[in-house]
Amino acid sequence: EDQVTQSPEALRLQEGESSSLNCSYTVSGLRGLFWYRQDPGKGPEFLFTLYSAGEEKEKERLKATLTKKESFLHITAPKPEDSATYLCAVQRGGSEKLVFGKGTKLTVNP
Amino acid sequence: GAVVSQHPSRVICKSGTSVKIECRSLDFQATTMFWYRQFPKKSLMLMATSNEGSKATYEQGVEKDKFLINHASLTLSTLTVTSAHPEDSSFYICSARESTYEQYFGPGTRLTVT
């Protein structure tokens, strides 16, 4: 069974304090790993797709990396507006289904 | 680009009534649409996958006669919760996929059954 575990469950940072969120996964034949951001009461907002180990993608203060067992979402010099829950999901080859982790709730204090 | 809308954003209904939620892809044609349910502080749980003009594929444990899904066109899918009960109260979110693997999510619908 495909599984996704995200850590930590919650993270509090001061503005400008860089950190990383972890997504560990087990899936047979990874097609893609996806990162989303979700604000309270809203649907998830797409951030990145990673397809193979060693791949990296960046967007503003966010950088996502992928290994064969885990993905990291690095946040550099975060701002209060980066506060949200960050979700990781995996998709197996041949399947339409995304399997989500429970997310990491990030709070950035000014 | 890749905007998905949902309507209504919030709905309150009485136990035993039916509620319909619409999901639209506004700027692309969605080959596949998905319906999720999310409980507080829980992960998104896939309920069903639908392709335009085909019957939806439901996940194990999801009652297909209770959660009716219609994917009438490449830009519209509807979820009807029939004979709703308080335990059906939840946050329902749809997503849509074009030709790539990314799913783009709608803003969600908060359903409260009294």
Structural write-up:
The complex is a heterodimer of chains A (110) and B (114). Helices cover 0% and strands 60% of the residues of chain A. Chain A is mostly beta strands. Chain A is globular, with a radius of gyration of 13 Å. The model of chain A has no long low-confidence stretch (mean pLDDT 96). With 114 residues, chain B is mainly β. Chain B is 0% helix and 53% strand. Chain A binds chain B through residues 31-32, 34, 36, 41-46, 49, 87, 89, 91, 96-98, 100-103, and chain B through 2, 4, 6, 32, 34, 41-44, 46, 49, 91, 93, 95, 97, 101-108, 110.
Keywords for this structure?
heterodimer; A: 110 residues; mainly beta; six-stranded mixed sheet; five-stranded antiparallel sheet; 60% strand; globular; B: 114 residues; seven-stranded mixed sheet
Structural class of chain B: mainly beta
Q: Over the alpha carbons, how many angstroms does the gyration radius of chain B reach?
A: 13 Å
Q: How far is the first residue's CA from the last residue's CA of chain B?
A: 37 Å
Low-confidence stretches of chain B: none
Q: What is the strand tally of chain A?
A: 11
E-strand count of chain B:
11
Distance between the termini of chain A: 41 Å
What share of residues of chain A is helical? under 10%
**Main sheet of chain A, how many strands, which sense, barrel?**
6 strands, mixed
Shape of chain B: globular
Q: Secondary-structure element sequence of chain A?
A: EEEEEEEEEEE
Question: What's the layout of helices and strands?
Answer:
The complex is a heterodimer of chains A (110) and B (114).
Chain A: E1 3-7, E2 10-14, E3 19-26, E4 30-38, E5 45-50, E6 56-59, E7 62-66, E8 70-75, E9 84-92, E10 98-100, E11 104-109
Parallel strand pairs in A: 2-11
Antiparallel strand pairs in A: 1-3, 3-8, 4-5, 4-9, 6-7, 7-8, 9-10, 9-11
Chain B: E1 4-7, E2 10-13, E3 19-25, E4 32-38, E5 44-51, E6 57-58, E7 67-73, E8 76-81, E9 90-97, E10 104-105, E11 109-113
